Every structure is written in structure tokens, then in C-alpha cells.
Amino acid sequence: MMSIRIPWKSHKFEHNTGFIFGLGMVPIFAQRFLIELLKKNQVAFALNMGQTLNIPLIIGGIVLMVWSSNQYLSQSTRYSS
To answer: Which end of the chain is more exposed for a tag (fewer CB within 10 A), N or C?
Structure first.
């Protein structure tokens, strides 16, 4: 939770729409992915269903953070020239 609270309170990412949301998604679903490693596998497969459902959400959070950062950088360069 501190990884989300510190950037939020510092107002550094105030104009990066979606960055804090993406920053929340990545650790939450990464933690769920790791918890799924501890569960007993019901089917002999490399990843269980919980892990396969968490992977797109982790990737989505990373994509959202990158997209948000790129949007902010393109807006700041557009207005500074």
C-alpha cells in the first residue's frame, strides 16, 4: 500500500491519468500469482487457472503505467514548445 500512497501524496503523478491505478494493479495481481504457486495443483499443467488469469492483469497494469507516462511526456513536450 505504501507503494501507492507515496506517489499519490507527492502529487508527482497528478497529471498521469491511470498511473496510480496501474501501479496498484501490478503488485496486487503479482501477489495473487505468487499465492497461486502455494496452492495444490489439481491438473498437471505448467500454470493453473488462477495464474493464467492474473498474467494479463499484470501486463495490463504495466501497459497502463507506460501509456500514462507516455501521454504525460507527449503533453508536456507539446506545451513547452
So the answer is: C
Instruction: Tell whether 49 is covered by a domain.
Output: yes
Per residue in 49-67, pLDDT tens?
Answer: 888 899 999 999 999 989 9
Give the DSSP letter of residue 75. Answer: H
DSSP notation for 8-65: HHHTTTTTSTTHHHHHHHHHHHHHHHHHHHHSPPSSSSSS-HHHHHHHHHHHHHHHHH
Distance set, CA 9 to CA 6, 16, 36, 55, 81 (Å): 5, 14, 32, 29, 29
**C-beta atoms surrounding 29 within 10 Å:** 19
- Could you tell me the residue range of the domain that residue 58 belongs to? 20-73
Domain assignment present for 15: no
Number of domains composing the chain = 1
